Amino acid sequence: PATDRRSLDTDSTTAMHAFSKMIATGKDKKRDAILNAAYRQFSHYSFRKTSMEDIAQAAGISRALICSDC
């Protein structure tokens, strides 16, 4: 992800709280990896500027694999 097009999100504390609850109840390693990656991306780049591709790359999986459990 290009850092020049993104800025830090001021809502990272709220995101961290929400994702920590989701991760704590997660039983699947893939789900936890996706949630952790999403939290990192949202915290660093903001929710609006993070794409599914960004999350997939951060989790080390394909974008299609994220959607496979939808």
**Fraction in helix:** 55-70%
**Beta strands, count:** 0
Give the overall silhouette: globular
Q: Report the radius of gyration as a whole number of Å.
A: 12 Å
Structural class: mainly alpha
What does the secondary structure layout of this molecule look like, with pairings?
Elements (H helix, E strand, L loop, with lengths): L11 H14 L3 H17 L6 H8 L3 H5 L3
Short description:
It is built from four helices and no strands.
Q: Which terms summarize this structure?
A:
mainly alpha, 4 helices, disordered N terminus, 70 residues
Task: Tell me about this structure.
By secondary structure, the chain is an all-alpha fold. The chain is 63% helix and 0% strand. It has four helices and no strands. Helix 1 packs antiparallel against helix 2 (29-45) and helix 2 packs across helix 3. The radius of gyration is 12 Å and the shape is globular. It starts with 11 loop residues before the first helix and ends with a helix.
